[in-house]
Amino acid sequence: FTNVPFFIFGPLMMFLMHPYAQRRSRYIYIVWVLFMVIGLFSMYFHMTLSFLGQLLDEIAILWFLGSAYGIWMPRCYFPSFLGGNRSQFICLVFITTAVSTFLSFLRPTVNAYALNSIGLHILYIVCQEYRKTSNKELRHLIEVCVVLWAGALTSWISDRLHCSFWQRIHFFYLHSIWHVLISITFPYGMVTMALVDANYEMPGETLRVRYWPQDSWPVGLPYVEIQGDDKNC
């Protein structure tokens, strides 16, 4: 049941960010398709509790992060030998992700190292951009992302390390909390990276953060809208 948000938020974000994707890159649709694949493989894993299910779940997350990494990584953070060439950077990310996927079938810990490497580098970039920017919307998104991610990570670690304790007090919901929080964290993270990317790749455009279903609601699903686009949601 807690995987349902992946199947709701994925298509919804594809619709809400359609004008942005048309202007920036249609490869963004792949990111949201992979977001739904995470939900699918996670559901399979929890139905079967098999090693294959766990591996597929982690591989889906790796490809999701790798795709977002390749599309939205600011050029100023590229390795110097690439000379700021995004096509070459995407190829490098693709090859690294493909090799990690292959090796994870031989040695599953490889996938964990790859996931942590991408995740930590994204966190480093977000922290750097937080220090640079005076954009209140971007700073707010980063703050919300960090809080959601910290809550999700705390739930996951606590569930892994103190499973017997939670079972003794009959509290079986930590893993479900992890699922819900991470399914919300990913959209916030993608919108954050889109705003950061726009500073470098779309200097002539003004992006505005909107929230579905209403901007005035205290809780909503964030998406970006290019100023001047006519779109009613």
UniProtKB/TrEMBL annotation:
Record Pfam families: Ceramidase
InterPro entries: ACER (IPR008901)
Pathway this chain belongs to: Sphingolipid metabolism; Lipid metabolism; sphingolipid metabolism
A cellular-component GO term for this protein: membrane
Co-factor requirement: Zn(2+)
The entry's keywords: Hydrolase, Lipid metabolism, Membrane, Metal-binding, Sphingolipid metabolism, Transmembrane, Transmembrane helix, Zinc
GO molecular function terms attached to this record: metal ion binding; N-acylsphingosine amidohydrolase activity
Residues spanning the membrane: 6-21, 28-47, 59-77, 89-106, 112-128, 140-157, 177-200
Predominant localisation class: membrane
Keyword DNA damage in annotation: no
Membrane topology, as annotated: Multi-pass membrane protein
Example GO BP: cellular response to calcium ion
Binding annotation for Zn(2+): 46, 175, 179
Broad EC category: hydrolase
E.C. code: 3.5.1.-
Localisation per UniProt entry: Membrane
Reactions catalysed: an N-acylsphinganine + H2O = sphinganine + a fatty acid; N-(9Z-octadecenoyl)-sphing-4-enine + H2O = sphing-4-enine + (9Z)-octadecenoate; an N-acylsphing-4-enine + H2O = sphing-4-enine + a fatty acid
Family in the record: Belongs to the alkaline ceramidase family.
Function: Hydrolyzes the sphingolipid ceramide into sphingosine and free fatty acid.
Protein name per UniProt: Alkaline ceramidase
Originating species: Cebus imitator
